[in-house]
From TrEMBL:
<keyword id="KW-0829">Tyrosine-protein kinase</keyword>
<keyword id="KW-0067">ATP-binding</keyword>
<dbReference type="GO" id="GO:0004714">
    <property type="term" value="F:transmembrane receptor protein tyrosine kinase activity"/>
</dbReference>
<dbReference type="InterPro" id="IPR050445">
    <property type="entry name" value="Bact_polysacc_biosynth/exp"/>
</dbReference>
<dbReference type="GO" id="GO:0005886">
    <property type="term" value="C:plasma membrane"/>
</dbReference>
<keyword id="KW-0418">Kinase</keyword>
<dbReference type="InterPro" id="IPR005702">
    <property type="entry name" value="Wzc-like_C"/>
</dbReference>
<dbReference type="InterPro" id="IPR027417">
    <property type="entry name" value="P-loop_NTPase"/>
</dbReference>
<keyword id="KW-0675">Receptor</keyword>
<protein>
    <submittedName>
        <fullName>Receptor protein-tyrosine kinase</fullName>
        <ecNumber>2.7.10.1</ecNumber>
    </submittedName>
</protein>
<keyword id="KW-0808">Transferase</keyword>
<keyword id="KW-0547">Nucleotide-binding</keyword>
Amino acid sequence: MNTIEQAAKRLAELKRAGFDVPVPEIPGAAAASPVPVEAPAAVPVEAPVPVAAAAETKIAPVKPAAGRSSAAVVAAARNGVVEALTSSGRRSREVMLDLARLEREGYLVPAQARSQLAEQMRIIKRPLLANARGESAQTLSRPNLIQVVSAMPGEGKTFFAINLAMSIAMEVDLSVLLVDADVLRPSVLARCGIEPARGLMDVLQSPSIELHDVMLRTNVAKLSILPAGTANAQSTELLASGAMEALLDELAAKFSDRIVVFDAPPLIPTTESRVLASRVGQVVMVVEAGKTTHAQVSQAYAAVEQCPVVLSVLNRARGKAGEAYGYYYAS
């Protein structure tokens, strides 16, 4: 069998696999002897989806995208790659949160809609959401961007940030993006049972990486996660860069029904949180009861004084009914 006959046979196989492959005119092809078409069952299909499965799932034919020739599409199919070529571009990857593990470790999950923790988070999130909707007396810039911080490490800010994001995801008309902005010691993915992935730092470093390339959709409706990404020695400078300013503008304006929660580094031992606090609309300061000193709290408040709204949460406080959270406003 000569080269032309082999090419014609391969095109016939691709058509039977569900690909809409245009057949270019090949000089001399008309003079070639006819190629017998074998029965589909006898033809091995190299594409990852069997012919029968392709018929059942109705996979759309692969068509050339802008700037791609038919030959490029044929080459992709020949390599066993079924490409999703759409005008809207790429879609963010989906991950599965280990909800059973999160619940065992004391986190809020959707099944706990009437738990004590769920009620406490409802109380805490209400003023934040009112500000995000423009219902407060103040006119805020980027009010849907909420930064969660603490004065020192180990006060429970990541625990609170995850719970706040989970609670907001339970809202009827809102979605939430949880950003692991603790770029020095990221822990959101590990706590949620997700493998490390590219994220915020990668978007800021490389113009070719877009937000949807690294944002993770989850099995919790209306909850997405943006990982911290690849560690960088210039993380403070990146968070203070024009690229970060543009990203915050995109996060604040692109989706009017999305709240963005940043789990940021502790304020006193780092500089990253101070930079971010000057650019978000609201800050939540997590303070551990019986541990954080008055001097540390005062220093932390001074570091975020440029943010017009600061909501403070007293973590691990014990009341009459054993509440885990108390809350109060601080200006």
